[in-house]
Amino acid sequence: MSIEQEQMAAGSDPIVQVRREGDVAVVTMSYPERRNAFSMKMRLALTDVFQRLMHDDPDTRAIVLTGAGGHFCAGGDLSEMQEATPSLLALRERIAVGVRLFKLIYTGTKPVVAAVEGACCGAGLSLAAACDFVVSAETAKYSCAFGKVGLLPDTGILWTLPQKVGGGKARELMLKGDVIDAAEGRRIGLVSEIAASGCALDAAIAAASRFASYPPVTLALLKASLVNAGNSIEDACRLEIDLNPLTRQTNDHAEAVNAFMEKRKPVFTGA
Questions:
Q1: Per residue in 88-107, is it b (16+ CB within 10 Å) or e — as a string?
Q2: Phi and psi (nearest 5°) for 236?
Q3: All structural domains of the chain with their residue ranges
Q4: Residue 119 gets which letter from DSSP?
Q5: Do residues 245 and 271 make contact, with C-beta atoms less than 8 angstroms apart?
Q6: pLDDT band at 118 (very low <50, low <70, confident <90, very high)
Q7: How does pLDDT run across 243-260, given as a tens digit for each residue?
Q8: How far is Cα 33 from Cα 74, in angstroms, rounded to an integer?
Q9: What family is reported (predicted)?
Q10: What are phi and psi of 232, to 5 degrees?
């Protein structure tokens, strides 16, 4: 049974909703009364959904992550932080769940596109930065204001933000916690594409559908290369030598060449 079928059978309104657009799974954070805050329930639900989409759903070739109610994610759920402070072990597990989710998005085999409207703050920015491609509504707002609530940046952003915008700019955003708009996000490399307000999801699905049309094995190896090639020149060259021959031997590579020569659209199977 697919995730969508399970949700329909349960008859409830889950905090993370999944629907399909062809080869694209659209994952929606649905906690609009708190602007899709990154609560513990949200962390666990997102981790479960991404685990299954990345590893147990061959029909999904690309994923869109978005938020309900006109916002992406406003960051951590401060109402949870007003409760009694959990034990150190419980707090470590809370952070570890976010790390697992980050790794599923960032190192997973399928491309993930963020569709951002409204607030994208704190852990919301972490989620967007972990994605391969960010489509932003022109009215969206971004901030990395962990320090303002006495916390360190989490959910992988200590790695992803410097990768996206450079070390100096990432340091500035993390230290100052300033709010930036979509245009500035595009200028510094955080945002990949800007859409009109209310149109980010449609544009993100279009981008994800384009990625989903590529050979799945090549995409998986490309994501692995992008994750692991940035440590040194030797790592980049080693991955090129190790992984390129694998793509050359796939049926999808042969299909791509044949389709090009025959002036037709290729049909990729993931073999």
A1: eeeeeebeebbebbbebbbe
A2: -60, -45
A3: 3-212, 216-261
A4: E
A5: no
A6: very high
A7: 888 888 888 888 888 888
A8: 11
A9: Belongs to the enoyl-CoA hydratase/isomerase family.
A10: -165, 165
